[in-house]
């Protein structure tokens, strides 16, 4: 196995140990480190900062510098410039709502795990053909929910693929998703809402993380 594939496999193995990935939208880069610290206080050492806002690049850089122990993910990576920014920042992994082969190959060429988004059998097969063993099922709720993924599990589960459902996943339904062997983790934006971040309500965020991890342990 090449050193590149070894590094990607190592990060994949680390993510497979973490059943919940917080999906975070940050409007003020100054909130990034306190937010990440609130997640860590709750027992969660992984974060996905979406590239939806102008503050995202600096937010990622701030977390990378202040909290190197955090598994730092960049989400909503949909442009070439965003992909380059992620690699320059040194993120641990990247994610996207869709599957762009060029983005997958760019991350792979830079020794960094990438998790593309899929919604159909054809997209799953394209992801597998690119060597992606972990795929983001998005938008999970609108794309047919648990029943849809259960049906997809029949042909693709034996191939070793794992899914991270995101979109419509919450504390009330997370166990339905995590009960499926094909699901390695769920992505959740409820763990730290934009309003809670704006209010700097770090204590509530820490408590929500604890509740999510406690429920995940029941799966």
UniProtKB/TrEMBL annotation:
<protein>
    <submittedName>
        <fullName>KHG/KDPG aldolase</fullName>
    </submittedName>
</protein>
<dbReference type="InterPro" id="IPR000887">
    <property type="entry name" value="Aldlse_KDPG_KHG"/>
</dbReference>
<dbReference type="GO" id="GO:0016829">
    <property type="term" value="F:lyase activity"/>
</dbReference>
<comment type="similarity">
    <text>Belongs to the KHG/KDPG aldolase family.</text>
</comment>
<keyword id="KW-0456">Lyase</keyword>
<dbReference type="InterPro" id="IPR031338">
    <property type="entry name" value="KDPG/KHG_AS_2"/>
</dbReference>
<keyword id="KW-0119">Carbohydrate metabolism</keyword>
<dbReference type="Pfam" id="PF01081">
    <property type="entry name" value="Aldolase"/>
</dbReference>
<comment type="pathway">
    <text>Carbohydrate acid metabolism.</text>
</comment>
<comment type="subunit">
    <text>Homotrimer.</text>
</comment>
<dbReference type="InterPro" id="IPR013785">
    <property type="entry name" value="Aldolase_TIM"/>
</dbReference>
């Amino acid at each position: 196995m090449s050193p590149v594939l070894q590094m990607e496999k190592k990060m994949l193995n680390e993510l497979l140990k973490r059943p919940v990935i917080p999906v975070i939208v940050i409007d003020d880069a100054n909130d990034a480190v306190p937010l990440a610290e609130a997640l860590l206080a709750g027992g969660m050492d992984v974060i996905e900062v979406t590239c939806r806002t102008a503050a995202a690049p600096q937010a990622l850089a701030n977390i990378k510098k202040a909290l190197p122990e955090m598994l730092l993910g960049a989400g909503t990576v949909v442009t070439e410039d965003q992909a380059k920014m992620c690699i320059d920042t040194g993120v641990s992994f990247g994610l996207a709502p869709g599957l762009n082969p060029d983005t997958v190959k760019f991350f792979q060429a830079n020794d960094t795990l990438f998790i593309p988004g899929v919604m159909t059998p054809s997209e799953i097969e394209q992801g597998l053909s690119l060597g992606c063993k972990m795929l983001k099922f998005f938008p999970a709720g609108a794309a047919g929910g648990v029943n849809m993924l259960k049906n997809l599990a029949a042909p693709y589960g034996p191939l070793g693929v794992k899914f991270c459902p995101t979109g419509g996943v919450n504390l009330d339904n997370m166990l339905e998703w995590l009960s499926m062997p094909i699901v390695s983790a769920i992505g959740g934006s409820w763990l730290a809402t934009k309003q809670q971040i704006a209010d700097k309500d770090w204590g509530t965020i820490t408590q929500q993380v604890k509740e999510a991890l406690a429920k995940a342990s029941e799966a």
